Amino acid sequence: MNKKVSVIGAGNVGASVAQYMAETNLADVVMIDIVEGLPQGKALDLTQAGPIRNYNCMVTGSNDYKDIKDSDLVIMTAGLARKPGMSREDLLAKNAEIVGTAAKNIKKYASKAYVIVVSNPLDIMTYHMWKVTGFPKDRVCGQAGILDSTRFRAFVAMELGVAMRDVQAMVLGGHGDTMVPMPSYTTVAGIPIKELIDAERIKEISERTRFGGGEIVKLLKTGSAYYAPAAATVEMARSILADEKRVVPCSCYLDGQYGIKDIYIGVPAVLGAKGVEKVIELKLTKKELADLQASAKKYKGVLAEIGY
Question: Is 175 a catalytic residue?
């Protein structure tokens, strides 16, 4: 019997998550959306792609939260998308309302599920999801650093003309302009990038990573990225559902690690069948640690705006 993954939101991110999730052949997928016909139509379209894309998982759509019942994993993608000139924090109030409603229904219908949050502002919405569901902290995490580090990996590979899969990168902190790219933990086939790229260029690539989402928003003009966010999310989902024990940077609850408490922020973690199984504390320079703590402090302030 297949596992069950529910995707809240059938927009660009949600539909892409459903597609990539089905292609893993790990779980049947249910898409939930408030727009009548939208999740049903996209689900049917994805199901009909199965014979060609070689997946046997069923994809269904619904407008009723009761259909997430008994999900093993819920992926929260619903929310307003950024437009040019908007920060992720500009989405705060409306998306907090959307995530809060979803969280209450997840608690009601899928009380044993693990939850991955993609809705922005991501670290804030992950904390909000955790609070409203009342789930253990290891069962709620956010897709953040895994996307940012993937962008970093792509930019490094583009710079050097090497295979993207040979590049490993690390990005810590909030999923926003205060994120902390970590060139000291970024390698190409095990070779530190400082031996392949000069310091000034590394700084430029790090800056492009920091504003990578905004770059896409400016180009699209009417929305935000969805292919890479969806792919990053499914990478996390695979690790949980298949107990892969992948080490990825994602938004996790910190309780003293890195000198940070009571907040979700991007750090490296082991993801497996028990969710966030371990938060890894890297050895950071004073500046790296200060930047990470400054990112957390900013998000602490934002949490206060929704009553935390």
Answer: yes
